[in-house]
Amino acid sequence: MIFEGRNRVTSGFRLAARPNHNGIDIVGDDDKTVHAVAGGTVGFAGAVSKSAGGLTWQWGYYVRIDGNDGRKYYYCHLAAGSLRVRAGQRVQAGTALGTMGNTGYSFGAHTHFEVRNAYGTAIDPAGYAGVRNAVGTYTDATDKEDNDMKFLKVTSGKCEVFTAPDVNAVDKSYNGGKLIEGTCYPVQAEVGSSGGYSWVRIFVAGVQRYAAVLADRCRLVTLSPGDAFAACVAQGDAGGGAEELKAQLEAANARADAEARRADEADKRADAETQRADRAEAGEKRANEQAGAYLQRIESAKTALGV
Ligand SMILES: [Zn+2]
């Protein structure tokens, strides 16, 4: 996304209210740093003077990234003096470009974000910015996944399970006091160290138990939303963890779906463009053939006239 945290869309791409608005206006509510959403090369970083006649003076200070994908990405109305990139520089998705501002033809700080395809046509930029083309506030779901729930992955048959963070409190009632090798147990909390061991409180078959994190027996891991959900369900974690993970799983699936749809649409667009190019080529061929026929007729007329 362009901003970390909340990205508030104040005006969309060619919505009924502004059919000629070729970009999307986004305000960073939590963070003002404008980040590239796709990698490429900086094609322009600066401002165009109005008196010089450049139409893009309206964008104030702006950065154009010539994307690795052939599209051009425009980040506009940046604060004067805030630009962090120079023309020719390579950037990646996430590179800081500058600070949200109000330069050019702008009323209130925001970033006008525009995406153009290889033909220079403005296309719906919402998906590229990770938002929907509708007024509203969007946050990056993947930001949340960074604080993902942890799991204790058991890598040995010797990993003991305890009723308290105490080496003398082995819980013999569960599998003879051993966690099951290969299983991932949801971690409720890391409870610090005691007795020289680092302890975690985990969910084991529906009850809270403890384990000592010992490198040769187990380790803390994060899991994909699907695996995390399955691991929680397997341990009967009804205490919010599963619910939260289910929501994350659904969000991840929705993102994957949206990604697939976008790719599909891009394919369709590419197909349409190829077909158009094919038609243009066929037209050109016809014209050449016609021109050839005319030339032949002229030649035969010349011959007939003895010119
Ligand atoms: Zn705009």
Explain what you see:
With 307 residues, the chain is an alpha+beta fold. It has two domains: 6-139, Distorted Sandwich (Glucose Permease (Domain IIA)); 151-244, no CATH class. Helix content is 26%, strand content 28%. The chain contains three helices and 16 strands. It has helices at 141-145, 225-234, 241-305; strands at 6-11, 24-28, 33-35, 40-46, 61-67, 72-78, 90-91, 96-99, 111-116, 122-123, 136-139, 151-154, 184-194, 197-204, 207-212, 218-221. Strands 1, 2, 4, 5, 6, 7, 9, 10 and 11 form a nine-stranded antiparallel beta sheet that branches. It has a five-stranded antiparallel beta sheet with strand order 15-14-13-12-16. It has a two-stranded antiparallel sheet with strand order 3-8. A hairpin with a 4-residue loop joins strand 5 (61-67) and strand 6. Helix 2 (225-234) packs antiparallel against helix 3. The protein starts with 5 loop residues before the first strand and ends with a helix. The mean pLDDT is 87. The structure holds zinc ion (ZN). It comes from Ruthenibacterium lactatiformans. This is M23ase beta-sheet core domain-containing protein. Residues 256-291 are annotated as: Disordered.
